[in-house]
Amino acid sequence: MADTSLSPAEARQSAERIKTSWFSALLYRSEALRGYLLMSPTILILTIGIIIPFFILVAMSLWTRDGFGFDTTLTMANYARTWDEPIFGALLQRSFWISGVATVATILVCYPMAYYVAFHVHKNKMMWIILMTLPFWTSYLLRVFAWKVILGYEGVINSGFMSLGLIEAPLEFLLYSQTAVIITLAHAWAAFAILPMYVSLEKIDKSLLEAATDLGDGPVARFLRITLPLSMPGIIAASFLIFIPTTGDYITPALLGGPDGAMIGNFIQLQFGPVNNWPMGATLSIVLMLWISAIALVFLFVTKKAQDKIA
Amino acid sequence: MSARGDTGTYIKRPNRPLQIYAVIFLIVLYVPVLFIPMFSFNDSIYVRFPLQGFTLQWYAELWSRDAVWAALFNSVKVGAVVAAISTILGVVAARAITRYRIPGKSALVTFIMMPLVIPGIIFGVALLVLLSRMGVPLSLYTVTLGHLIVCLPFAVATLLPRFEGFDPSMEEASADLGENGWWTFWRVTFPMVFPGVVASLLLTFTISFDEFIMAFFLTGTDATLPMYIWGQLRFPQEFPSVLALSSLILFISFILVFIAQRVGRMGLEDA
Amino acid sequence: MKNDAFISIRNVNKYFGSFQAIDNVNMDIGEGEFFSLLGASGCGKTTLLRMLAGFESTSDGEILIDGQPSADVPPHHRPVNMVFQSYAIFPHLNVADNIAYGLRKHKLSKPQKQEMVDEMLELIKLPGYGKRKANELSGGQRQRIALARALILKPKVLLLDEPLGALDKQLREQMQLELRALQRQVGITFVFVTHDQEEALTLSDRIAVMSGGKVLQVDTPEGLYEAPKTREVASFIGNMNFFQGTVRRNGSSEAAIETQGLGSIPISLEKVTKPDGAPVQVALRPEKFELLEEEPTGGHFVSAKMDKTAYLGERSHYYVTLDGKSEPVAVSSTNQFVARDDDRWKEGEPVWLSWSPEAVVVLDAD
Q: Tens digits of per-residue pLDDT, B142-200?
């Protein structure tokens, strides 16, 4: 190598002698500290946005309404009410029923699609994934609104069928029913639910299926013994991703549910709006969260047991 | 992906019924949403068949409404701020998650991803309660805070695969060649995760632009576009203009998300 | 502490949680030396290299580079550069920009930079490749670019993390020669990590054999091969036959080892420090034995019986069984004078095994 006037190594050597501050030295030595420092703004915002509000929500659920203000003596009165008055139990039950049916429906409808893309699409896989999931990212309100347009008294289905002469009068059961809410929820969440199922199916080593076939399984046995168990994590993840957010939904029931389709979310929203009983609203939110956690735990436990049994 | 070569294998042979199912699935997924633009061009105040003829009058009417413009600007302002902050925080957090050995890392990641699985209404009311107890008036700032919480997990989830997808020794090589953390970020890290940054910006902007659940609880006097639409839904005579506005929002959202997904997956597929 | 070493590693330990990756390592690396860290994967060699580069901190102990303590010096201030195992060629930059990456701080004019880059491309025998995209390069070319990118900064030490591991056999052998020549040409200290013992023997001035975070032995290639200090080193570098034995001292001037299988072997006094009756091991490389058809007239020999044989082209491996030793003894000999099949040894044939006591290595008993 020729002798150039430059000697970077020496330049750096002198830079090295500049005393680094104790803070940068500490940062350099502790990898974890650097990591926490980088995460801290995110954690801070989520703490302000999630943790602190949650504690205040818990506190408020123990208060009671007092005219336009709050009586801040701690009491379980609100919780007692949710237990004693049947309306709350009935609403919770209905919310879980509607979300449960919507979840099962979504999984059943989406699984074959996820399966198709994972196993039978070879060209432009990325386009298929984008196409499947694209609607999820667009306005939830508008997607629900679209179903109002379709299912409405004078909506697409009724007016369409009538102008075709298939029916005489509009079908009234379409809008403002539990069915309307379930259809809309399933449709609105399909694009999201499909992703975890697709991912778990895509991960399955195709040679496992060939091995199962080689060992004498037909397509049905192969599916039940290999594909389905291996894609179970995706199904479980998808179930959570639909069931949990939909139980608290209030837009869909408000636009499409009518009196029979109202869910706990509507009731919570009422407490913070027209009814103006915030402590009760807070209590209902906490109760909803507790129930969701309980159901999620039971669900996890049952699926784990079931998987152990199959294996 | 290894799929290409073994198209003809036994497991992957074409399955006609599934193919038909997939096409029907996509049609059912998209058609309901397509009724909105369809009726937005319908020359009738009633949203029903048969269609009455083509018109642009609902769009023209929107154009002259100050409230729509105000709501649009509000939504764009909130969306832009939310997109910028959540993407910056997402980059920083994703880097920390993928590059450092941090005790309690998985708990932190779970915490960041929590808003994905907790009903939006609970975040909405919890924040509302906090803000009102602190005496903070509801405004576009409070909406922005709410949207940040919704968007952060998506930003992190979009950026994580980008950071996971490139060799950590790239950054080490830069440090080894004499660049400090700041320059390493701009000369190596940022160019390599750039598609992810673009995708995250577009996605989080769209999510905020379309978000309604949090906005419902946290909006003050300045309405965002979805809040404006919600307000108009009470008036049947406003239906056609709501349809026109919704069509525009859907169109913009679809375009932005489509670009985001394409760019975001660029170069990751064949890895 | 006064010493002439260019890199001094003093009592260094490294823990990842409760796992100890580096266990009290001490070593000195001289200026201009081609020094290898050799060991199986997980032995701590890469961790040690990354400590020199500054990517891992030391849990305790210290590392001096050119007399400077390095604990608080971040990688970008260290006078060392590294060639990564994956090469880490920046995919968004072309070859010239990759090579010139580290020059940003040096405030050079464009033509100056250009000149240095061209000089480097010349050095790595890739002239005219400056405008190529990183993804248009082969593995061997990437490896050279990674070298050039580090060498352009004229580091005091070049660290190489298994740089030849990703190359196929032929290219690897060619690159070994080039790397050695390059190191002589630039005169920089090279610290080279490898799991390939042949590669380490070919390239290095000295080698540190590592296992389980510890340094087992630091020596020249000849030293490691001919005089390993432990059974672990002996069996890691090349093949080795081991025989159990006992020290026999006759007064103060003579010593011998009574072995199971080879009989009594006279040993020079500097090779045995143990007292009379102490258990030891005797180790002999397969190629140190000579196979004979007939009983030799002098020297050290023992009768044996041919067991399995393996023909490897230029040489053959034989396994022979000895009385008093349960496992067979490996013998390696060239096929220089063996042309036809019927000249070779057959299984079950009686043979004679001869050796020279100078080739014998004495090790502590297990």
A: 999 999 999 999 999 999 989 988 888 999 999 999 998 889 999 999 999 999 999 99
Shortest Cα–Cα distance, A137 to chain B (Å):
6
ipTM for the assembly: 0.85
According to DSSP, residue A19 is labeled P
Q: What string of DSSP letters covers B125-184?
A: HHHHHHHHHTTPPPSHHHHHHHHHHHHHHHHHHHHHHHHHTS-THHHHHHHHTT--HHHH
Q: How far, in Å, CA of A84 to CA of A92, rounded? A: 13
Two tokens, residue C166: 């990703």
Residue B22 sits in the same domain as residue B85: no
CA A299 to chain centre: 15
Mean pLDDT of chain B: 88
* Predicted TM-score of the model (pTM): 0.83
Count of domains for chain B:
2
Chains in contact with chain C (at least 3 beta-carbon pairs closer than 8 A): A, B
Question: Are both A197 and A53 inside the same structural domain?
Answer: no
Fill in the amino acid letter for C108: L
- What are the chain B neighbours of C55 within 8 Å (beta carbons)? 172, 175
Task: Assess A137–B contact: CB distance below 8 Å, yes or no.
Answer: yes
Structural domain of residue B229, as residue ranges?
A: 65-264
Q: Smallest Cα–Cα separation from B12: which of C105, A31, C68, A119?
A: A119
With an 8 Å Cβ cutoff, is C100 touching chain A? no
Q: Is A73 exposed, middle or buried (0-12, 13-18, 19+ CB in 10 A)?
A: exposed
- To 5 degrees, how large is the angle CA C99–CA C101–CA C107? 115
The owner of tokens 């302002």 is B77
Cα separation, C227 vs C229, in Å, equals 6
**Residue-by-residue DSSP string for A69-89:** EEE-S--SHHHHHHHHSHHHH
Candidates C280, C278, C284; CA nearest to C249 is: C278
3-state secondary structure of A176: coil
Q: Chain C contact for B180, CB < 8 A?
A: yes
Residue C232, pLDDT > 70, answer yes
**How many Cβ atoms from other residues are within 10 Å of residue C177's Cβ?**
11
A120, amino acid identity: H
Residue B217 pLDDT > 90, yes or no?
yes
Q: Is there a single domain that holds both residue B143 and residue B220?
A: yes
Measured between alpha carbons, how far is residue A70 from residues A66, C155, C308 in Å?
5, 71, 94
Q: Which domains does chain C have, with CATH numbers?
A: 5-236 (3.40.50.300), 241-364 (2.40.50.100)
Residues 6+ apart with CB under 8 A from A211: none
Instruction: Enter the tokens of residue A136.
Output: 């999820």
Distances (CA, A) of B30 to A132, A144, A192: 9, 13, 14
Instruction: Indicate the DSSP class of residue B13.
Output: S
DSSP characters over C168-195:
-HHHHHHHHHHHHHHHHHH--EEEEEES
Q: Is A277 on the interface with B (CB under 8 A)?
A: no
Give every CB contact of residue B125 below 8 A, 6+ residues apart in sequence.
A57, A268, A272, A281, A282, A285, B217
The alpha helices in chain B, defined as continuous H runs, are 16-40, 57-63, 66-99, 105-113, 120-133, 140-164, 169-176, 181-184, 190-210, 213-218, 225-232, 239-265
Q: SS3 for C336?
A: coil
Given a cut of 60, whether residue B2 has pLDDT beyond it is no
Q: What band does A65 get if pLDDT is binned at 50, 70 and 90? A: confident
The answer to whether C176 touches C140, Cβ cutoff 8 Å, is no
Residue type for position B39: F
Note the pLDDT tens digit of each residue in A127-147.
Answer: 898 888 888 888 889 899 889
Residue A41 included in any domain = yes
Residue of C74, C88, C91 lying closest to B169 (CB–CB): C88
* Cα C155–chain centre separation: 23
Looking at the fold, whether B5 and B74 belong to one and the same domain comes out as: no
